[in-house]
Backbone:
């Protein structure tokens, strides 16, 4: 945008709260519908009535009730949570770094978490999930630290292109080492499944450990959202308005780390949710992160829940990797962003 | 006169450097021959090469180490020169067959073959480079088309971003394929992806040799064109270079070199980035001088990476690609933050 134009005339800077409200309401209904559909789809054919009964008149001798309660419900819920977390993490990164192609997968954060998880599987197998998730945070923090450390030490900041390259290279180094370790410790199948991404193995227990972290992360993101909007206008402007930009950036980095780490520990290497969702949301609701963040959370949940239904159905009875399904949407979207004319690239 | 003197100086400096690197490569070669689980001293190596060694010594040297090292030297040169071409024609110092996704395209074709014919643990040596070439050419064509914009041509930045995006798509496909492999093939594919110089016997040397023997001199003959292309489109066009044709021919050369190297060596990254950069630092941007040094540096890097990988852990080999990415990755990141966008 050129500075000579009055800001209010620029359509892309308008906020559309009514649109955001519609998006959230429709999104919540879509998630509920998705959760229901996800629970009734699968190899065992289960009717909606059985689902209803399994919730309100649970019968542990009924095989279908057991499947619903122990496999399908946690899986569907995990999908919604992970999708929300990835999308919010992506939205925060795009806002704070003013980088339109920020995403936890593209920026090497997923690879960082994966690297530490491989270390855990190799050297401390059998660790409980409560601890694994903490290691996953450390790994995600490693990725965040590496990429943004590079941006910090570069001469005049990294352009989006250079950040993308840095993310790609950090990912390739970390996943190379992960592969070497996995070969050495004979866990290459686990790593292959991890990289493919999927929530078919999610259990209640995992959901219960992951949920507080993700909900907490999104709440903090909501509290930060006003500051992120200001920061997204530019660091000088934010500082001029009296914002403690370092504090905001620091807290934002921690939130990204927790959201990405928690999701990756459950779902594996799924990328592009954090790229696609915030862009579409921003296009619809405008540039105010007080609306972008909640809308991204809802739409991210919708995306992953439905993608996971796809993962179950495409090659039934086999699982299709969730990461690949989302890449089918994500890669063309990335290409579209790359084609858009941007002078600063 | 001054300019003549300057170019004279540069030439003699380049010749000296070429000789220096050739000697270094030779030393590296001998050292690498000594290294491995069964150690053979330099003197014994010489004896064995002259046909005076024991049976075991000559078996290890001639059948195991020598072909592997010849391959390391060839793919090092191939990848480095491929990177130099890509950097020249895209006028971007960050281009590299790995980063642009060309290597993953080559890899995917090989992976596709392994998963379609699971009984064969590996494709026949002579077929591999061709399979890889198909994959790499298709990928290069897709990236080129997607990055091309009518009226704007190809901007270096868009080319790189498109490469990253296509690379991400290819890796999603390759993950689906790897999940369906049986354990033996999975191990082969994973080791291959890490750049293990797995195809290390004379058959592979023979399969790779023609590619290098034809393509490297061809590219060298085009050094002048590369000089022009890497300067500025307008200048090059005004000097009578038929831009589009020369660029495509050189791109084909780069793809051929990268594909054949990847087919034999596996996913070794960063050589196409490191080789040209080091060479340019030493002798400047003139491709006549820079290309030979690029090739030698690339060979030296892969040979050293492989030697280190074979010697850090005695029980298991660390693939050369991992060793190189541990050196090359940080160097790339350093370049990213030190050079101007």
Residues:
């Amino acid at each position: 945008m050129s500075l000579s134009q009055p800001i209010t005339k620029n359509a892309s800077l308008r906020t559309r709260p009514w649109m955001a409200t519609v998006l959230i309401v429709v999104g919540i209904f879509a998630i509920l519908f998705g959760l229901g559909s996800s629970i009734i789809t699968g190899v065992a054919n289960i009717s909606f009535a059985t689902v209803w009964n399994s919730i309100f008149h649970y019968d542990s001798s009924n095989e279908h009730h057991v499947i619903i309660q122990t496999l399908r419900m946690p899986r569907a819920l995990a999908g919604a949570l992970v999708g929300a977390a990835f999308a919010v993490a992506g939205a925060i990164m795009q806002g704070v770094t003013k980088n339109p192609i920020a995403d936890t997968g593209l920026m090497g954060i997923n690879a960082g978490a994966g690297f530490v998880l491989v270390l855990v599987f190799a050297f401390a197998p059998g660790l409980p999930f409560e601890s694994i998730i903490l290691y996953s945070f450390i790994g995600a923090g490693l990725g965040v630290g590496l990429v943004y450390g590079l941006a910090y030490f570069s001469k005049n900041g990294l352009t989006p292109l250079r950040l993308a390259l840095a993310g790609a290279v950090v990912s390739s180094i970390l996943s190379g080492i992960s592969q070497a370790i996995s070969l050495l410790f004979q866990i290459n199948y686990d790593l292959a499944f991890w990289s493919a991404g999927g929530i078919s193995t999610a259990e209640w227990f995992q959901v219960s450990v992951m949920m507080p972290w993700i909900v907490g992360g999104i709440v903090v993101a909501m509290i930060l959202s006003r500051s992120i909007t200001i920061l997204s206008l530019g660091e000088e402007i934010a500082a001029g308005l009296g914002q403690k930009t370092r504090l905001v950036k620091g807290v934002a980095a921690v939130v990204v780390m927790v959201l990405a780490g928690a999701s990756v520990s459950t779902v594996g290497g799924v990328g592009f949710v954090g790229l696609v969702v915030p862009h579409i949301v921003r296009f619809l609701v405008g540039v105010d992160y007080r609306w972008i963040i909640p809308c991204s959370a809802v739409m991210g949940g919708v995306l992953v829940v439905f993608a996971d239904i796809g993962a179950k159905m495409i090659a039934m009875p086999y699982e299709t990797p969730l990461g690949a399904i989302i890449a089918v949407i994500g890669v063309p979207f990335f290409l579209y962003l790359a084609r858009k004319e941007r002078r600063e690239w | 006169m001054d300019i003549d003197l300057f170019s004279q100086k540069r030439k003699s400096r380049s010749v000296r450097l070429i000789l220096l690197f050739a000697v270094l490569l030779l030393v590296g070669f001998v050292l690498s021959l000594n290294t491995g689980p069964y150690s053979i001293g330099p003197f014994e190596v010489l004896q064995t090469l002259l046909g005076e060694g024991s049976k075991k010594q000559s078996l290890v040297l001639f059948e195991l180490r020598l072909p592997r090292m010849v391959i390391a030297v060839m793919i090092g040169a191939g990848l480095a020169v491929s990177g130099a071409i890509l950097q020249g024609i895209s006028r971007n110092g960050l281009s590299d067959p790995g980063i642009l996704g060309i290597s993953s395209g080559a890899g995917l074709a090989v992976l596709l073959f392994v998963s379609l014919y699971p009984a064969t643990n590996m494709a026949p040596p002579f077929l591999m480079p061709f399979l890889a070439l198909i994959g790499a050419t298709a990928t290069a064509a897709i990236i080129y088309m997607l990055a091309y914009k009518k009226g704007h041509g190809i901007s270096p930045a868009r080319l790189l971003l498109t490469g990253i995006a296509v690379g991400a798509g290819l890796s999603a496909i390759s993950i689906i394929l790897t999940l369906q492999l049986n354990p033996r093939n999975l191990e082969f594919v994973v080791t291959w992806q890490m750049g293990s110089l797995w195809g290390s016997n004379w058959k592979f040397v023979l399969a790779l040799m023609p590619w290098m023997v034809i393509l490297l001199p061809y590219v060298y003959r085009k050094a002048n064109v590369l000089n022009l292309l890497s300067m500025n489109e307008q200048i090059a066009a005004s000097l009578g270079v038929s831009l589009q044709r020369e660029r495509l021919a050189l791109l084909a050369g780069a793809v051929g070199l990268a594909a054949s190297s990847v087919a034999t060596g596996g996913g070794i990254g960063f050589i196409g980035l490191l080789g040209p950069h080091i060479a340019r630092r030493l002798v400047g941007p003139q491709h006549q001088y820079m290309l030979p040094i690029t090739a030698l540096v690339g060979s030296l890097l892969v040979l050293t990476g492989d030697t280190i990988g074979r010697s850090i852990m005695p029980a298991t080999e660390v693939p050369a690609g991992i060793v190189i990415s541990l050196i090359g990755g940080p160097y790339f990141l350093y370049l990213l933050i030190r050079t101007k966008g």
Q: What stands out?
A: Chain A has a mean pLDDT of 85. Residues 63-97 of chain A form the longest helix (35 residues). Chain A touches chain B through 50 residues (CB under 8 Å).
